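Changelog-linked ticket: fe (ii) ion example.
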Amino acid sequence: MLIKGVHIENRPETSDIRITDGKFEEIAPDLVPRPGEEVIDCTGKLALPPFIESHVHLDTCLTAGEPVWNQSGTLFEGIQCWSLRKETLTKQDVKDRVHRAVRMQARNGIQFVRTHVDVTDPKLTAMEALLELREELRDTIDIQVVAFPQEGIDSFPNGRQLMETAVKMGADAVGAIPHFEFTREYAVDSVNFCVELAEKYDKLVDVHCDEIDDEQSRGLEVLAARAYESGLKDRVTASHTTAMHSYNNAYVTKLMRLLKLSEINFVSNPLVNTHLQGRMDTYPKRRGITRVKELLAEGINVSFGHDDIFDPWYPLGTGNMRDVVFMGLHVCQMMGCQEIMDSYKLVSTNAARTLHLGDSYGIKAGNPASFIVLDADNFYNALNQKSEVLYSFKNGRMIAKAVPAAREVLF
Ligand code: FE2
């Protein structure tokens, strides 16, 4: 198959892409079709590596209002709503919703997903469902599963056993939620436990870390120190870290040295944290987004996640990473021309580092032919014009396509 005329990753010149046996065989200008070769004309369109959802909760998606709506809009009321919904959870219910969500994501050019799955459920229903789905959907979407203790590890009955069971069942990564634990001691112990579990079973780590506006929430320094000392380093991810928004600058300056030494990844969730944070403030209200711009300037890896899709924590969302980037650039004040142009990396190449996808991710000869084509010539215009994902190819197979709506202005 030959894809004609794409701008690969914003390059001004166009290239053709030849796909053979599911791999990128050749990438060069003006490739001549072979006899009988299928040709797709994408002249002037943008080709990118596939979008990656580096932080989402697929087990809770599409449950907003069930059985009650989160009226206050706070994270903590969200956890209460979810614990009610959790009582009626069945494996089929999880699978049906995740199937719908994954198709929404595929339509939006996502091919890789890291989902956190709540393991503070004695039956581990959602974990079982997600692990089955990970295998069932392997050909269309790569799913990484994080054992995520929504109601705490040391603050939830049998929390440690549930975590270890989930890891033994096959979770890819170990989570924690230090800011939700009963005490600071529990918070530190839970992070230590999480890192030790990851070491024991050779897993990645992704912690819901300091997702609170409390400037005293210091789970991040504990996580970064353990990542550094254990040698796990870039196998560790700190998600959310919204308290960092409220830390004093003297502390952040000191902390930054440790963060760089630790080589950990960050995931920020601009849609959801703009909605959830600052809820206890009067005015001025904090944005509660971690310091993305400053972390990137220090050479630290940051990606963006959607976090929630129409669930107790976030009542909107269609699983579209372009929406995430759009919001993130605003709230992080990253609106320089080059920042906007490069911002697709926050939901592609940076996220690939977080997920440890390795060298096989990316548009280059020899790699699996996984990429997307957007209806614009570069990402700046794609973002601004809300351009459709025209094609999504995974391992050389088209898994989604779109025909842009025709619109006319009649004056
Ligand atoms: Fe989250």
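Closing comment: Example verified and attached. DSSP finds 13 helices and 15 strands in the chain. The two ends are 42 Å apart (CA to CA).
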